[in-house]
Design goal:
The protein has helices at about 1-25, 30-40, 40-60, 110-180, 185-220, 240, 245-250, 250-255, 255-280, 315-360, 365-380, 385-420, and strands at about 25-30, 70, 100-105, 225-230, 285-290, 300-305. It has about 425 residues and is of the alpha+beta class. The protein has a domain at about 25-80 and about 110-155 and about 210-285 and about 315-420: Outer membrane efflux proteins (OEP) (Up-down Bundle), CATH 1.20.1600. The strands form two sheets. The protein has a four-stranded antiparallel β-sheet with strand order 2-3-5-6, with no helix packed on it. Strands 1-4 form a two-stranded parallel ribbon. Helix 9 runs antiparallel to helix 10. The longest helix has about 70 residues, at about 110-180. This is Outer membrane protein, cobalt-zinc-cadmium efflux system. Keywords: Signal. It comes from Flavobacterium pokkalii. It holds the Pfam family OEP.
C-alpha cells in the first residue's frame, strides 16, 4: 500500500510546483512595469539615501564645536610646608590644589556660514546626481522592456510557423508511407522544422537573460516570469513630433541633470574657494580658568584667549588650488553643455530617420504579410505551388517580419535616446 501512495505524493508535489510557477507569471504594460521599477529598484532606493546623507551634513555644519573642559594640577598628598586652605567637604580639601579651565573655539571670517553654504550646494548636487542616475537607469530599463517585447513578438512568429510546419510534417509523414510524395520533400520540411526549433531555443535563451535583468531591476522573485503587454510596442510620438528642436537644444541646461550638476559643481568649487580664503584668518579660542591654591590668591578666576599668528602659513597654496578648481569646473561645464546640445541634435535626427522608415512600411503591411502567408500555405496544401516556392515565401515572410519588429524596437530605443539626451520625458 505504501509503495502505491509514494508515487502519488510525488506526482502531487510536482503538480503543485508547476502550479506555483504558473501563478508567478505576471503580465505588465510598459507603464505598470515602470511604476513597479520606480517603487522597487534597490539601486534607486540606495541612491536616494545620498540626498538624506547630504542633508544630514548640513545639520552637522550648523553645529558649533564643543567646548573643552580640563581639570589639572591636582595634588594627591600633602606637601611639606603646604598652606592650609578652607575645606571643600568635611576635612577634605584643606591641602588640595587644583586648576580648571573651559575653552571655546570661535570661528572667524564667517567660516561656519561658508561651511554651511558648501554643504547646501552639496545637498543640491546630491539631488541632481540622483536625477541623473534615474535618467540613465530609466533608459536602460525602457530599452530592456523593448528588448523583451521584441523577443516575445519574435517568439510568437516562430512558434506559429513551427506549429504550421509540424502539422505539415505529420501529414507528409503519412503521405511518404503511402508512397504519394517523395522522401526528399519530407526531409526538406523536417529540416525546416528543426531550424525553427533551433531558432526558438535561441530566443528562449535570450529571453532568460532579459528576464534575469528585468527581475533585478524590478526586485522580483527569481521564479517570476514576466510578460510585457505587446499592445504598446509602438511608442507615442506626438510630443516629439510637436517639439521645436532648437528650443530643446537651447533649454537643455534647464532639463539635463548632468548639465545642472556641472553648474552646481562650479558653484560648489566657488564656495570652497571662499572658504579657503576665510581660512587665512585665524580662529580664536576663548578661555575661562579657575585655580585653587596655586597663586597669590587662594581662589583665582581668570579670562584669556589664544590665536594662531599667521606668520608662515596664510593658506596661499589651498586658495590657489581652489581658484584653479573654479576655473576648471567652468571649462567642464561649458564642454558638457556643448556635448549635450550636440547629443540632442544627433539623437533627434536618428529618431526621425527610424520614424520615417517605420512610416514608409505602412500601417497595414504586417496584415498583408500574414494574409499572403495564409494564401501561400493554402496554395501549397492544394498543390498549386511547389514546396520550394512555399519555403522561399516563408523565408521572405520571416525576413520581413523581423525587419518590422526590428524597426519597432529601434523606434523605442531611438526615442529613449532622444529623451535621455534632452532630459525631458516628452510623454
Amino acid at each position: 500500500m505504501k509503495k502505491r501512495i509514494l508515487p502519488f505524493i510525488f506526482l502531487l508535489s510536482v503538480w503543485a510546483t508547476a502550479q506555483n510557477v504558473v501563478n508567478d507569471t505576471i503580465i505588465l504594460s510598459r507603464k505598470n512595469a515602470e511604476t513597479l521599477f520606480l517603487q522597487n529598484n534597490l539601486s534607486l532606493i540606495a541612491e536616494r539615501l545620498n540626498i538624506d546623507i547630504a542633508q544630514a551634513q548640513i545639520i552637522q555644519a550648523k553645529v558649533w564645536p564643543n567646548p573643552t573642559f580640563s581639570l589639572n594640577e591636582i595634588n594627591l598628598w600633602r606637601n611639606t610646608g603646604s598652606e592650609e586652605l578652607p575645606a571643600i567637604w568635611g576635612n577634605y580639601g584643606r591641602y588640595q590644589e587644583f586648576g580648571a579651565s573651559l575653552e571655546q573655539l570661535v570661528y572667524t571670517a564667517g567660516k561656519r556660514k561658508k561651511m554651511i553654504a558648501i554643504e547646501q550646494v552639496g545637498s543640491d548636487m546630491a539631488v541632481e546626481y540622483y536625477k541623473n542616475f534615474l535618467r540613465n537607469l530609466k533608459m536602460e530599463f525602457r530599452n530592456n522592456l523593448s528588448a523583451m517585447q521584441y523577443n516575445q513578438a519574435k517568439n510568437s512568429v516562430y512558434q506559429k510557423q513551427l506549429q504550421s510546419f509540424q502539422n505539415l510534417v505529420k501529414a507528409y509523414e503519412v503521405q511518404v508511407k503511402q508512397g504519394n510524395i517523395s522522401q526528399g520533400d519530407y526531409i526538406r520540411l523536417k529540416a525546416s522544422e528543426l531550424e525553427f526549433l533551433n531558432e526558438i531555443n535561441a530566443i528562449k535563451i535570450e529571453n532568460n537573460a532579459l528576464q534575469s535583468e528585468m527581475k533585478k531591476l524590478l526586485h522580483l522573485a527569481p521564479t517570476t516570469f514576466i510578460k510585457i503587454d505587446k499592445e504598446d510596442i509602438v511608442p507615442d510620438m506626438t510630443a516629439v513630433n510637436n517639439l521645436n528642436i532648437q528650443e530643446a537644444i537651447d533649454e537643455v541646461k534647464n532639463y539635463r541633470p548632468d548639465v545642472k550638476l556641472a553648474k552646481l559643481n562650479e558653484k560648489y568649487n566657488q564656495k570652497k574657494y571662499d572658504y579657503q580664503k576665510a581660512l587665512k584668518t585665524p580662529d580664536i579660542t576663548l578661555e575661562a580658568s579657575y585655580d585653587r591654591g596655586g597663586n597669590i590668591m587662594r581662589n583665582f578666576f581668570g579670562l584669556g584667549f589664544s590665536i594662531d599668528l599667521p606668520v608662515y602659513d596664510r593658506n596661499k597654496g589651498n586658495i590657489k588650488a581652489a581658484q584653479f578648481s573654479v576655473e576648471q569646473s567652468k571649462l567642464k561645464k561649458e564642454e558638457l553643455l556643448n556635448t549635450a546640445q550636440a547629443e540632442i541634435f544627433e539623437t533627434y535626427n536618428n529618431f526621425k530617420a527610424v520614424q520615417k522608415l517605420y512610416e514608409n512600411q505602412g500601417a497595414d503591411y504586417q496584415q498583408k504579410l500574414d494574409k499572403m502567408l495564409e494564401s501561400y500555405l493554402l496554395s501549397f496544401k492544394n498543390r498549386n505551388i511547389s514546396l520550394l516556392v512555399y519555403l522561399d515565401y516563408v523565408e521572405a515572410y520571416l525576413s520581413n517580419k523581423m525587419i518590422l519588429l526590428d524597426t519597432q524596437k529601434e523606434l523605442n530605443n531611438r526615442l529613449e535616446e532622444f529623451k535621455n539626451a534632452s532630459g525631458q520625458e516628452l510623454n
